[in-house]
Design a protein that fits this description.
By secondary structure, the chain is of the alpha/beta class. Helix content is about 35%, strand content about 30%. A hairpin with a 5-residue loop joins strand 15 and strand 16. The termini are far apart. One of its GO terms (molecular function) is DNA binding.
Length: about 280
């Protein structure tokens, strides 16, 4: 089986590649792309892969844009940290929908589902086709009942889960030394060159072995807020909030962040509510 991985966070892509090697040793990853533009170019110039693993949020837009620019004949397994994309995902070539961080059992189930669908297509008996249509129809009904009525945000939000246990410390590796940093010491998490870092209140920066999407699921949403794709800030690190054009907000962090931090218009209201409006 040939596989294309479309994922803009390198640690996540490599982790998925390792999982695939464990679950299906005969699978061959023939390409790894990080953006809509790069993925469109790859699909136009390479043979059709047997399966595509596709992150929904990419650096230059949503992966759904790929389908508007090039014919995608391969079945797709979508991956994302935010499950409100489910309905849209199943309107294209999707055979499954995996939440990050991807677990081995879920990946194995998705690959099994692909094989079952291949068997159905190989045997065109009406009973099999009818069963497949009924199964997909039932799946869509379940997703529609579970999906929220609000507009889907472009960035995965931090949301409390029932009985969830959130991380209160992170193990840091520095050379041969290991030490722990408490979330009480963290001002914010940020990404740089596809790697994730935490910055402490006393302005130390440390590399963390998680993607921003994974961190979004680990942190207490009462204390941390994902301002944009690049920054997750702790409440006390939000120094000043300024009105920006087109309904956006501009944030000053403490300690200062090296780049401009802008919150989209879609998330501005959510941020105000988190701050206590």
């Amino acid at each position: 089986m040939t596989i294309l991985i479309i994922e803009d966070e390198e640690p996540t892509a490599r982790k998925l590649q390792r999982l695939l090697a464990d679950v299906m040793p005969t699978a061959h990853v023939v390409g790894m792309t990080v953006s809509v533009e790069e993925s469109v170019d790859w699909l136009r110039t390479n043979p059709r892969p047997d399966l595509i693993f596709m992150d929904i949020e990419l650096a230059d837009g949503q992966s759904f844009d790929i389908f508007n620019r090039v014919a995608v004949a391969s079945p797709v397994v979508f991956t994302t940290a935010y499950d409100d994309f489910a309905i849209k995902a199943f309107k294209v070539n999707s055979i499954d929908y995996l939440l990050k961080p991807v677990k081995e059992a879920d990946l194995r189930q998705a690959l099994d589902k692909l094989q079952q669908l291949k068997n159905v297509l190989a045997d065109s008996a009406p009973t099999n086709v009818t069963a497949l249509e009924a199964s997909l129809s039932n799946l869509l009904q379940q997703l529609q009942q579970a999906a929220p009525a609000t507009t889907t945000p472009a960035i995965p939000a931090l949301r409390p889960l029932p009985h969830a246990t959130f991380r209160d410390r992170f193990l840091i590796k520095q050379g041969q030394r290991l030490f722990s940093v408490s979330t009480e010491e963290v001002a914010y998490f940020f990404s740089r060159n596809k790697l994730s870092f935490l910055k402490t209140r006393d302005e130390h920066e440390w590399l963390v072995d998680y993607t921003m999407d994974e961190l979004s699921q680990m942190l207490d949403p009462r204390r941390f807020f994902r301002l944009n794709r690049q920054v997750i800030a702790e409440l006390r690190a939000v120094d000043k909030v300024h009105l920006y054009f087109n309904g956006k907000l501009k944030i000053n962090l403490r300690p200062a962040f090296e780049e401009e931090v802008v919150v989209s218009r879609e998330k501005a209201g959510e941020l105000k509510g988190w701050l206590g409006e």
